[in-house]
Each structure stands twice: as C-alpha cells, then as structure tokens.
Request: fold
Amino acid sequence: MPLVTLNEVLKPAVVGGYAVGAFNCNNMEIVQAIINAAKAEKSPVIIQASQGAIKYAGLEYITALVKVASNCSIPTVLHLDHGTDFNQVMRCLRAGFTSVMIDGSKYPLEENIELTKRVVEIAHAMGATVEGELGRIGGVEDQVRVSEREVLLTDPEEAVRFVEETGIDALAIAIGTAHGVYRGIPKLDFERLETIAKKVDTPIVLHGSSGIPDDDIRKAVQLGIRKINIDTNIRVAFVEANRKALKDNPEEIDPRKILVHSREAATKVIRHKMQVFGCAGKINS
Ligand code: G3H
Ligand code: ZN
Reply:
C-alpha cells in the first residue's frame, strides 16, 4: 500500500493502548530488516532516517528503498528523524516523506514554537504529519549532540502550550532517556510522563529507547508513550553480526554472505521490540 502518515498508525495505537516502533535505517539491509520484522510480526511500522543517514545514503535512495519496502500490506510511514534544518525538512517533504520531525529543542520555547509551527503549516498542506520536540534529550543521535549538562526534562505546562500553539501530530519528550549506548541503567521520570500524558492528547514519543529494560518500556507504554524510537540496538546487532561473520569466514569475499547475517540479526532485534511495544499483531493480513 502507499506510504501512510503518523496519524494512520498512531491514532489506532492511542485507541489500542500500544506504541508503534520507529526504527532508524541507513541502508538497504536495514530497511529490509525493518519491513521483514513488520511482516513477521504483523505490525504497522515507522521507518525513519536521520539527516546523517540521508547524508550517507542519499535522499533519493532512502526514499526509493522505503517506498519499495512499503509495497506490501504493512502500513508504513517514511519519517524524517531529528530534522534540525528547515531546508532539509522541506527537501524530505518534496521527496515524498509522509512525516517529518522538526527538532527545535535547542532553541528557547518561543523560537521552538515559531519554527515548529512553520513546518506544521507546510507539512499539513502537503498531507504530511509532524513530530516536534520539547525538552532536550541527552547523548548523540547522528548530528544532534546534547551533553549531560544540557539535558532538559520536558515541563508539562510548556508541553500543553507547545502542542496547542504548533498543531503537531506527535510530541517527543525528555524524561531521562538518552541517545546512544547507556553507561548505566537509565532512570526514567515516569511521574513526569504520566503528568504530561494526562494533559496532552497528542501521541507522545520516546527517544533514546535502545538499552531501556523491557519492563520500563512496557511501563512507559502503559503511561501513554505511543511512538518508540530505536536506532542504537539495530546498529549494534548489525555490526556485531558483521564482525562475527567476518571472523568466522575470514576467506569469504561475497558481501552478501556477510551482510545476510547482519540483516537477520537486525530483524530479530526489531521483532522483539515490536512484541514489547505491543504493536505486534495489530494488522490483519
Ligand atoms: O531518534 C532516534 C532515537 O531516539 C534513537 O535512540 O539510538 O538510543 O535507540 P537510540
Ligand atoms: Zn531521537
């Protein structure tokens, strides 16, 4: 089926009380791993690309790969992750992305609202959806870097104002998760999440979700998280399988015989996440 927007996958998630996985891709094998997992788990899916992924693979390649992947019965969203550059966001919309994130979290509230609102007006006119971010999530996600000192948890009252004034379709919040590999076990501010979820109707997004224990993820979903971003867990599974395949087969010169293991390892990780998020089994065919 044609690519869908966040609304088509997140509205049923709100009604059903589960979260939809948003998985980062960089190349063909990862796109295939994501769609294969969605098919195996009968799950709707969000395939997202960061600005770094677009720089690496090329906008046309990413768009074409995900369009081909969506040529099946899985409701699939093509979403820009952490768009910090207005022009890049516009290029993605023109290329056929059905959803974009505008990450204005580094700006003061007023400026973040202004920028996000501008993107919402254009994206909505083009039939696409928008995710905004309020608060500041720690760690490194490709081109977005936030040190521990700069982390800012989302203020619930500001979240109400941000959602109302911007008209976004999904809200990314900071409740203690971080991008990249965790050094210890992260402590999430569930109370803050609960307060925000009670005040805000817009689906809430959890970033930096790799490495969060499954039970904490389940609790976050119970409290109102409806989109969950996973990147690092896929990268690690992909590269570790690659390393092992190279080590086990030092004479192998066929890239396919190495990459097939990476693709399978990524699929396995993604399938598990879909089960934990509750989106597994949510489509009929
Ligand atoms: O935007 C992408 C996600 O927040 C990824 O975070 O690398 O910790 O899974 P992660
Ligand atoms: Zn993120």
About this structure: The radius of gyration is 18 Å.
